[in-house]
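From the methods appendix. Each design record in this collection lists the tokenized structure first, followed by the designed amino acid sequence. Records were kept in a plain field format so they could be parsed without special tools. The example shown here is representative of the layout used throughout.

RECORD:
FOLD TOKENS (291 positions):
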């Protein structure tokens, strides 16, 4: 197995210093951090439908959402019941429009009675009717995302060519290319290449290094992806893979600051898999329809 540690920004030369390092991987994330400073919206794209890529995408999206960004996750294929154990599936869509307008109300859906539109002198009015005794919609809770200019920042996990008719989405906007293959993308404003590592291993180190504390939901997703992509840590593993698993397992058993005071029940490793490991192949490319 190739030494994947040679890919990173800095390394400690002596292996006996392992215990003194907070993480075995240290990515160069300077450009990504700079792009995130002013970002208010983000899209995460998973060209290939796999437990590994979807779990990593949702973990990133949940972390970005907690900082106040408007986030969506795009994968061109619909997920199946096999993905039901992942958190954040409400952020996932199989449709992407490079043009158009998305209006988001940060308001409880069960308090909305009806949504309609009308033409007022060739001006479009969207009418949202709330249920009786429901609280008034705060104008500050109305979020507008002009998709014609794209999100402020986009993350794409793997080769965009597998997106079929949607592969042109990378031609505009600020994109971060993340891949386990050593590929150069001229459209990427920043790239993170970690050869042969599963996406969930990459993200287990990347998210904390971006300053995001892993919450139980994001960590659970990453742990599921790690288990599936490595067949329970039996293939495609390195010392870093096991450390990533330990980081995620610890986070699933740690209460976040925003959680209720009741302690979170520990989640045993064997209970967070979405399905029998042998059923999945994380690197298997599912065909994308271009019709």
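DESIGN:
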């Amino acid at each position: 197995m190739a030494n994947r540690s040679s890919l990173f920004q800095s390394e400690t030369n002596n292996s006996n210093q392992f215990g003194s390092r907070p993480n075995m991987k240290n990515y160069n994330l300077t450009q990504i951090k700079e792009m995130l400073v002013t970002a208010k919206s983000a899209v995460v794209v998973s060209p290939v439908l796999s437990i590994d890529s979807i779990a990593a995408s949702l973990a990133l999206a949940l972390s970005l959402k907690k900082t106040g960004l408007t986030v969506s996750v795009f994968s061109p294929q619909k997920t199946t019941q096999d993905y039901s154990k992942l958190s954040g599936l409400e952020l996932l869509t199989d449709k992407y429009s490079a043009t158009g307008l998305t209006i988001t109300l940060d308001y409880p859906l069960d308090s909305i009675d009806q949504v309609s539109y009308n033409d007022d002198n060739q001006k479009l009015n969207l009418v949202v009717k709330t249920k009786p005794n429901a609280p008034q919609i705060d104008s500050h809770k109305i979020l507008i995302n002009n998709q014609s200019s794209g999100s402020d920042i986009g993350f794409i996990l793997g080769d965009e060519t597998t997106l079929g008719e949607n592969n042109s989405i990378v031609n505009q906007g600020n994109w971060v290319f993340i891949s386990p293959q050593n590929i150069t993308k001229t459209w990427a404003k920043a790239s993170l290449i970690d050869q042969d590592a599963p996406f969930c291993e990459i993200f287990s180190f990347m998210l904390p290094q971006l300053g995001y504390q892993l919450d139980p939901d994001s960590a659970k997703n990453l742990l599921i992806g790690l288990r599936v992509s490595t067949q329970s840590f039996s293939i495609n593993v390195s010392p870093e893979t096991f450390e990533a698993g330990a980081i995620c397992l610890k986070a699933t058993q740690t209460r976040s600051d925003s959680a209720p005071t009741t302690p979170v029940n520990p989640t045993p490793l064997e209970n967070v898999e979405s399905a029998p490991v042998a059923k999945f192949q994380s690197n298997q490319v599912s065909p994308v329809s271009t019709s």
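APPENDIX NOTE: The chain has two domains: 23-98+150-279, 101-149.
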